[in-house]
Amino acid sequence: MEPFSAHCRMVSHLRLKKGSDTMLEILRSNNPVLLSFVEVLLRDAGLAPVVADNNMSVMEGSIGILPRRVLVLSDDWSRARKVLQEAGLGDWVNTDEAP
Question: Could you report the per-residue pLDDT of 44-76, keeping only the tens digit for each?
Fold first, then answer.
């Protein structure tokens, strides 16, 4: 797994390349297996997802009740949704954030 700074550089690079600076939530879960699977699916599709709130376990006492959010660039949201739907995860997609 890449360090957080590498994620920031990757997202910054994509912002410059695509002209988008807005990240939107595509999925929210406290299931670490699902989050890891979604991150791999999106990366394999050439997207740069960011899993937010990973360090909230410090605040919650490491019991896993606070969900983590998977964010993608707004320009990539529709493509990310399609990737997740094709993988059978369409029910998990957060349509409230749809551009």
Answer: 999 999 999 877 756 666 666 788 899 999 999
pTM for the predicted model, two decimal places: 0.72
Where do runs of H (alpha helix) occur along the chain? 4-18, 32-44, 57-60, 77-86
Give the burial string for 28-63 (b: 16+ CB within 10 Å, else e): bbbeeeebeebbebbeebebbbbbebeeeeeeeeee
CA–CA dist 56, 47 (Å, integer):
24
| Cβ–Cβ < 8 Å for 81, 93 | yes
Structural domains of the chain, with CATH? 4-97 (3.30.70.790)
Which two three-digit tokens encode residue 82? 């399609």
With tokens 């912002």, the residue in question is 15
- ∠41-80-96 over CA atoms, to 5°? 130
